[in-house]
Amino acid sequence: MIPIQMVDTKTQYLKIKTAIDSAINDVLESAAYINGKAVQDFTVALNTYHQSGYTIPCANGTDALQIAMMALGLKPGDEVITPSFTYIATTEVVALLQLTPVFVEVNPKTFCIDPESVRKAITSKTKAIVPVHLYGHSAPMEEIMQIAKEYNLFVIEDNAQGIGCDYTFSDGTVKKTGTIGHIGCTSFYPSKNLGAYGDGGAMFTNDEALAHKMKMIANHGQEKRYYHDIVGCNSRLDSIQAAILNIKLKELDHYIAARRTAADFYNNAFANHPKITTPFVANYCNHVYHQYTLLLEDLDRDGLVNYLAAQKIPSMIYYPVPGHKQKAFESFGVQSFELPITDWLTERVISLPMHTELNEMQLAFITTHVLNYINQ
Question: Of 111, 132, 147, 251, which sits 20 to 30 A from 1 (CA to CA)?
Fold first, then answer.
């Protein structure tokens, strides 16, 4: 059996090696390493995939979030509501811009931001909400957008883990996550569903003025070279990564289908087990399974992790320390936040291998050993 990995990017690459190598060679031959034709082509293709008004590539997903907040004109002291149960990048940029992070609860089934918790956290200083499409499951965007409209707030979608996910509104309208809020942000980190072979990111918006401003911010605040109208940063997707992503974008829906097949195998193996809760999928979206995350009850999670490791089965805890308990944010008074659901989840979640190259033999091996440990 092929060794099991949390993410197998090498085998995925080998299947499209000829096309990837050719695309990289084209960039090398062109010597247009920054904002070359490959970047322009990928931007158009990604915009078409999302049916978004405007797509602006950048250097990584964290930059995308920061540029989005800069473009919206958020000022030091403005409050930004976001879940505590997510990767630190979501809140890190809030702190970097001297905004005030306000952590709220998530739904224990979907792991995504809870609208009622958002509503309760709104104050006169609140300016934005950052819902996270965690693990590949969409946040409840229709409710979030309704709240934002009611209180005149901006919505920045953190779609780093949700690219390719479809959201269905109550009227039947379907949109891709990342295109629903005022700005959507994504990451092309190698392990993502659409992963580069290095760093990369992008922003989406239907607002022409915002698109123009984000493009300027990402390029040192300039529209015309050496004329810097606003303070910006240096955040560009390089041509080699764009060329790779343009090849992989054509495979994205197939990659998502493969992830769902693996998730179905896991779900069937663990169905109705009293100590395991498999991923919930709300009726408003289709899960893209960036991670396959279980909830454990009355189990020694560390014991399971160690047992699986002994069988050469990797696993991960996403995330063991929530934002409101991170030392980095202590100066914002986050210790005062009481988030029992988030705390409960951090003690019970475990993610199993999830990628496009998992086969039935590997999945059977993984599930058998998980059940062996649980049933012993």
Answer: 251
